[in-house]
Each structure stands twice: as C-alpha cells, then as structure tokens.
Amino acid sequence: MSKASELFLTFARIGLFTFGGGYAMIPLIEEECVRKKRWITHDEMMNITVLSESTPGPVAINCATYVGYRQGGLAGAAAATAGMTLPSFCIIFLISLFLDRFLEIGWIAGAFRGIKLAVSILITDAGIRMLRKMPKKPWPAVFTAGGFLAMTVVNIFSLPVSSVVLLLAAALLGLAVFSRHPERGGTDG
Asked: If DSSP states are collapsed to H, E and C, what string results for 56-93?
C-alpha cells in the first residue's frame, strides 16, 4: 500500500468513528500517529496541537495535514486531509437530506445527547494527556492555570472575549517570558 493510501485510510478511520470535532479526535490521532504508527513523537503531537489551534481551520484537519505532509509531502498532506474530511462530509450531507425528520426520531435525539457527554470526556482526556506531558517547570504551569482561569471567567460571565484574543495574549506573554529566558519553560531546558 502506498504511503498516501495508508495516510488516507488512517485518517478516514479517525474521521469516520469520532464525534465532536477536532478536540475529540486528538486522542485518536495521538494513538494512531504516535503510539501505533510512530509517525511523530509525543512532543511533536503537542506542538502540532498548539499550532493547529493557532492556525485557521479545524484542529483535527490541521493535525492530519501536518502529519500527512511530514510522512508523504504534498501528496501525503492531501491524502490525510481528504481522509479526515471525507467521512464527515458524506455523513453530514446524508443527514442534511433528511434533517427535519432525522431529529424528530426520539432515540436519535437521545443518542446525540449522549454523544455530547462522550465528546466532553474525550476533550478532557486530551487536555489531561497534554498537561501530563508538559515540562514540569513553573512558567508552563502558570500559563496553563492562567489560560484555564481566563477561559472559565469568560465562559461563566459570558464575556464577549474571543478565545483568539486569549491565544494571542498568551503568545505575546510567552514571547516576552521565553525569548529572554528559554530555560524557564522550554522542553529542552
């Protein structure tokens, strides 16, 4: 099997069997790409996740594109991206044809409520895994706690602050702290 085919099938399987969007897919991407296939390392997965959040587009698709490019160049990136997006597109297209009648079915509506809970657990799991792999230094812990606190306050009080603003603020603060003293929180220091 060609590398592009392998990338397509790997990410199509992830895209087909994961509900809840990009954050829910991160643990599955990590399982496939880091543990099973060893295409990337744990540190690279953390970096990919951070970069994928910071760039336009869904996190999971950005992750797939990066891994695909890393493994097979432009063709690999295209194959991984297509694999990640095609199953969702097909499913949503089919659902959209029957959407009104689809959501009126009681057991389907109940299933979607259950899926929401499962997705929140998957997202929490991804966050906990990333926290465990962070360098055990004070500045990364301060950034993590500060970001969590800021997002919690924004959500609880329904403040009109975009998460993009918080990401940019964290990036600027990180540049200020770590560009002068890289040893304070980098993975190498």
From this structure: CCCHHHHHHHHHHHHHHHHHHHHHHHHHHHHHHHHHHH
State pLDDT tens for residues 81-140.
999 999 988 988 887 787 767 767 888 778 877 877 777 787 777 778 777 877 778 887
Top-confidence residue, 135 or 145: 145
Contact 65, 77 (CB under 8 A): yes
d(CA 149, CA 132): 18
Model confidence, pTM: 0.60
Is the CB of residue 74 less than 8 Å from the CB of residue 88? Answer: no
Q: Quote the CA–CA distance of 24 and 165 in Å, as a whole number.
A: 23
Cα 114–117–123 angle (5° rounding)? 140
Which sign does the torsion angle of CA 133, 139, 145, 146 carry? Answer: negative
| C-beta of residue 60 within 8 angstroms of C-beta of residue 97 | no
